[in-house]
Structures are given as structure tokens and as C-alpha cells.
Amino acid sequence: MLHVQYTIRCASYHLYMSKRSAALASAVREIIAPVLRTCPLECGVVSFTEVVVSADGAYATAYVSALRNPEAALAYLESQRARLQRDLGCLRSRHIPRLRFRVDETPIRASRIDALLSGMDIEPNDT
Hints:
Strand order of the largest sheet: 3-4-5
Distance between the termini: 53 Å
Radius of gyration: 18 Å
Strand content: 25-35%
CATH architecture of the domain at 20-105: 2-Layer Sandwich
Helix content: 25-40%
Shape: flat
Oligomer: single chain
Number of helices: 4
Order of helices and strands: EEHEEHHEH
CATH superfamily of the domain at 20-105: K homology (KH) domain
């Protein structure tokens, strides 16, 4: 059997997901995405930046980005987790992954790096 691997970023390291795991992650994202329309207004614009399925298919971790209040968005999604978990029952899979939600830290890290780089005094190279 041919195994195709996709590189998916996750925190500060890379995970390798098989083609099946990548397809399952895509299906999970499609099923849970409509809940974002009902997020509280205090959160601002909310999106799933990434969904990662563990190698054994036991967990699906959805990384959340919110414009104003990511903690409120995370709390809302956690309150909806049981319903979303039931919705995942339509997947044609032997095991339904357990949903987890995490705040996507990528924008925070990127802004820290930008701040560090803007504070550096780099002289132009005369070559």
C-alpha cells in the first residue's frame, strides 16, 4: 500500500499525517465549521486555522483563531463540543475522533518575532 505523507504545522514542530488522516481532518473541519456562525459577537471573527487528526485517529484537534477574544471563542466551542461530537457520527470511519479545541498561537508568535526584528539595528551590507 502506498503511503503519502502531508506535512502539517502544529506548534513548533511538524506532524506527518497520512492521506487518510488528512482526509479525515478535512471532513472534521467541514462538519464543525458551521458552528463558527453562532459564536458570540464579543469574539469578533472566528476561524479554524487548522484541524489535525492524531496518527491513530483518536483525536481531532481544531486550532482556533479569534480577532478579539480567543478565550471566549474557545469557551463557546467547548460548550458546543458534545453536539459537534454527535455531528461527527456521520463520518464513515470505524473510530470517531474525539474533538479538542486549542487557541492557535501562531499569530502571537509571529508578532513577537516581528517586534524582535523591528528592534534590531541591522546595517545594510555593501557588496
